Each structure stands twice: as structure tokens, then as C-alpha cells.
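the three lines:
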Amino acid sequence: MSGFGVLLRRELALSWGRGGGPLLALAFYAATATLLPLAMGPEPARLAAIAPGSAWLALALASLLSLERLFERDYEDGALDLLALGPAPLELAAFAKCLAQWITAGAPLAVLAPVVAIALGAPPSLAPMIAVTALVGGIGFSFCGGIGAALSLGSRRGGVLIAVIVLPLFAPPVIFGAGAIDAYAAGLDWKTGLMLLSAYSLETLALGPFAMAAACRNALS
Amino acid sequence: MIVALEIENLAVARGDRLLFKGFGLALGAGEAVALTGRNGAGKTSLLRAIAGMIRPSAGRVAFRSAHGELPAEDARTRDLHLIGHQDGLKPGRTAWDELKFQVAWTGGTIASAEAACERLDLMRLRALEVRKLSAGQRRRLALARLVASPRRLWLLDEPLAPLDAERRNIFGALMREHLAADGLILAAVHDPLPIPARSAELTS
Amino acid sequence: MIAALANPRAFMRFSRWAAPTLGAIAAVLAAAGLWLDFTARPDYQQGYTVHIMFIHVPAAWMSLFVYGCLGVASFLGLVFRHALADAAARAAAPLGAGFTLLALATGSLWGRPMWGTWWVWDARLTSVLVLFLFYLGYMALDAAIDDEARASRACAILALVGLINLPIVHYSVVWWNTLHQGSSVFRADGPAMPLSYLAPLLTLTLAYMAAFGALWLVRIRSEVWRRRAAVLALRAAG
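prediction for all of em together
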């Protein structure tokens, strides 16, 4: 397990240091959120109705941003070879990468999410719910995204390809997360949505690394 | 602990192209083999097949310990160094940080990493970012983990290409020490190695 | 039977007669099915648009069935490292996408007279749309990786990931639909089906399956030939 600790610390340092850390994802999130009222018109009632959902949509898109670099850099400069020959299996390395991605990008995005939603007109009382769902959903986004990133190693059109592979897999967390927030806002049962979201994130967390490691081995061969 | 490497009747294909077949080699403790062959013959693929990354089309690679055959997975993840064309160093990090990680990952200690820096004349470079290093300096940094982490089998892919004559001699001394300590070296080279070594040619 | 077909020569011999036979069966069944379709009594509720349903519903079933075949072929290719299984999986994908597109298009045509819009976000149509996106992602990955063996394995991994997630996605879409259930009831199935509808439905389903079988075999055959030609060309180049 010491191998995992070493790796996690390194991945955290790498993803924090890469091109300004989470700032890029946060800026992208803010920018897409800004486009929404520009597209829909500033009428508060209309915006407020779609505020939580739009915040979630923009969150999903922003999570795609740093995926391309998750495995590609290591693949290009030979570090993936080293990871394959180390004390921890590639599955654990993939897990560490996605976990680091969630900590350095997913968590800051989850902090920004309520701000974005409120700026779009959602009632501030929704803020904790939005933050929690964004945090839990961020795990799903990181690990699903990792699968896409690993599969597209060594291919052309990396970033767009990852999005095309991964966006359909984002459908369940988007549905569960936004659904939970809407239920909370309407005073209905929100626990179900949150539990389903957590279950999905757990599933990707548990199974994703196996797909990612298989994809990495395939790329190395 | 790897005591011997046995390759029997190995065939490797990339895509639809068969690179080579029928390759055999036996390497024991304290032995070095220089792998030669023209470009594109498959030297890199052979090394990667031994390291387990490429699946051979035919034949087998076996690792022996003092107690019999070693499971390949154990041998590869614990007792094998692979230094390829790329060095796996991150441009934005300092040389010392990168070396620390590589050494910790492959089973060495901070003390041994420092000793390796001494041997390979890297002490002055440690605080520099990797992107500021020259090709020769990066190669020495990549080779440092060979010295710092004690793994028996060294698979080297043109290790000395960017190094000058003096540094090649230094590395030659390190290779001699490794062989004296019952290490095994298989190096793909175009030029002769700075140590006495058997030659094995890879023909298609 | 799958094991017996695993040998490429045996497969080529089998598909040589099987493909045209399935094609003929498909043509006959399609003709029969369409005849049964157009002679079926129009439903009192759905009117004449029920004829589209006979084309739409089997297409939706086939889109799922083909994905299942793709998953099985991917699994076999991944576990047994069998080139023919890999080729079969990648050959099935465009066919599956085609059926899905047919289901979406006919679903839209069906919906227009019934609900007044060209598209409606009900559970089944949305699920089929996401399935279409799965197919597109698979084909995009296949096209983006140059090395064939690597492309096959990557696609196989994606197919299995998709297979595991497909029930989850479908469940989430159904859940989503119940959340946002408006006053109207979009029962895409329509009322319980009278017996006279089952006959054209099943006939057309079998026709689609036979057509898929024929097209799939043809596609795998052409893939086998293409690879043989590539190997020969490489050998000739020295």
C-alpha cells in the first residue's frame, strides 16, 4: 500500500501543478455558465427554473476538460511503462489518478457549483444540496472519464473522442444528481436520487479501474 | 530474485507484421548480453516482450530464481528495470522530485537515490526542472534508478546513446559492479558496450 | 456452434451458404410481414399510424439484440484473443447503429401524428437515443485507433463497459421519466396488443434478425478477406 501512497502523492502534485491546477476547469465552468443567460435571456423566472439542471450540465462538461491529460502524458513520455512495472498493479495506479483528478478538479468544481446555480437564479437554500450532489457526482465523472481517457490512448482526436465515448455514460449521474436537487427544491423525496447517485459513483469507482488498466495494457502492447 | 532469464523460440508480431521468430537466449547471473540488429528488427519489441508489455505470438519467457521458476508477474514488477528510449520524466518537476518518485516506486530509498546522484554526477542538477536538462543529463537521471533501486535484471534500450565518452565509462563501471553483484544485463545497442558482453543478433 | 465456427476456414465455408440463405429468408419474411402489417385492422386509438409501430418496435428490439451480440463477440475476442470474434464485434456495430437509427426515425414518424411533435422525450425513445450514442462512441473509437489489434481490444473493453452500464442508463432514464411525468401519459407501447398484431410484429422481427444475420456474415467475410489481402500485400513488399 505504500506504493499507492507514493503514487497518490505524485498524482496530486502533478494534477495540481498542471497548467494552473483547477483554475482552468473552474474558468471553463464559469464561462459555460455565463453563456446560458446569454442564450436564454436574463428573465429571472425562466433562468431560475433551469438553474440547477444547467449548473449540473456545465459541471459535466467541465469535468471532461483535464481528462485528456490523465493518461496521455504518461503514455507519451514513458512514465506509463514505469507504472506498469511497479509494486502496485495498474488498477491501483488508475484508481490513484482518478482519485487525484477528483480531489484537484472535481472538488473545486463542486464548491463552485452552488455559486453558479445561485448566479443563475436558484434559491440559496439549495446550495448545500447542489454542493453535495456535485461532489458525489464528481467521482462518477472522474472515474467514467478515466475510462474514456484510457481507451483513447494512442488514438488521434483524443479530447473529442473521450467526450463522445464518455458523455453517454454521464447520463445516469446527470439524471440522478439533477433529479435529487429538483426533488429537494420541491420538498419531495430527495434521498432516493442522492442514493442512486452515490451508488453510481461507487460502481464507477469500483469497476472503472479494471477497465482503465485493461485499456492501458492494451495501449502499451 | 532473478537468477536466470530464459527465452525460448520467441516470435513477436506488431500488427500484421512478424518482426522475428525462433529467438532464443539464456542469460545467467553476472552475465551481460548485447542485443544487436538493424533498425526495425524488433529489439525494442523484444525487450518489451520480456517486460511483459507485448504478448509474444509464440515461444516463452521464463524467469528463474534460486528456488525454481519465478511467476512472471512477480519477476517483472519486483526485479526488473526497463530503460527505454523515453525517460518517463515530467518536464515541470525538479530532477530530485522525479528521481525520488522513481526510486521509491521501484524499491529504493532516499539514501540510495542520493548515492546514485553522486555516482552519476547529478548532484548539481538536482534542483533544476527536468525541462532545463540536456538530453545527456536526462538520460543520466533516468539511469540513476538502476543504481538506486536494487533490481537484478536490467533491460536497456540503447542506454548510452546521448552520453559522452567519459560518462559512458562511468556507466560502464556501474554495469560492471552490477554484474559482480549477480545482476543480469540485456542491452539493445548499436555501438559496443563498455563492458565485456556476449552478442546476440536479432534477425527477421 | 460458436466453437466450431471459430476456425476462419470453417467460418468462411459456413457463411458462404448461410449468408445468402439468411438473406433470402429475410426477404421472404419481410414481404410476409409487411403484407400482414398492411392488412391488419387499424387500431381505434392509434389509427393508421399503427403500421409504423410494426417497423419501429422490432427495430428497437434489434438495436438491443445487436448490442448484445456485439457484447458477446467482444467478450470472446477479449478473453480468447480471437481475431474472428474481434472482427465480428466491429462488423456488428454499424448494423446496430443502423437499426437504432431506424428505430429513432420511425419512432419520430410514429410520434408526430400521435402526440403532435416530431420528438418526445419519453423513456423508451430516450433510452434508444442513448444506445445510439453508445454505438457512435464505439464506432468513433474504432475509427480513431490505427493499429487493428489495439483498436479491437479497446473497442471490446468499451463494449463491455457499455453492456454493464446499459441497464443502469435505461433504469435512470425510466426513473427520470417518472420524475417528470406530466399530465399526459406517453405510453409508447400503446394499449395491450391484440393477437392480430402479434403476427406481423413477430414476422418482421424474424425478418430483421435474418437480415442482420445475413449482413453480419457478409461484413465479417469481407473483413477476413481484407486482412488476408493486407497480409499478402505486406509479404509481397518484403
